[in-house]
Amino acid sequence: xxxxxxxxxxxxxxxxxxxxxxxxxxxxxxxxxxxxxxxxxxxxxxxxxxxxxxxxxxxxxxxxxxxxxxxxxxxxxxxxxxxxxxxxxxxxxxxxxxxxxxxxxxxxxxxxxxxxxxxxxxxxxxxxxxxxxxxxxxxxxxxxxxxxxxxxxxxxxxxxxxxxxxxxxxxxxxxxxxxxxxxxxxxxxxxxxxxxxxxxxxxxxxxxxxxxxxxx
Length: 216
Fold this sequence. Notes:
Oligomer: single chain
Distance between the termini: 36 Å
Mean pLDDT: 78
């Protein structure tokens, strides 16, 4: 999704929320509409404006409302990008651990098959010997790779094993820690969105309805 940033009321705000954050906006909006303050203010209007009216108005103005929490939202987007990059980096060693032994095993099979084939055919004995040597080298690499994978799996299992003492804190995991940071920043954004954006907007619309004196 392409970003088009504007320099309007809130500096640095881009003119849309990400699609995955629209549901979060909806949740915060519902929280605000169900809050005691908004419910009391609605009753004071005598039916001049309904919760449905407020919801429609707030949803239509969601971008300008979201701009009031631009700093927190941009911080959330930065943390998401960082966390995604960290996960991709963590997956590279695991991919190599699988790929290297597999390729070495294939190469070993090919070299040994051709080498021993030439040897049995008594054709080009020097080449046959070289191919056999390369095949056994690749076989050794395959064995070392599989051994390294086994050791890595054992270490991972030990690190992820539940602590014997329930009160002992688990070892920090970079991926979990990154996800926790994203979650905490998302909560900061939601709080700012509620306090600085949605609640003031709803109260302003209720006050306008009371001043007009006509039901919607």
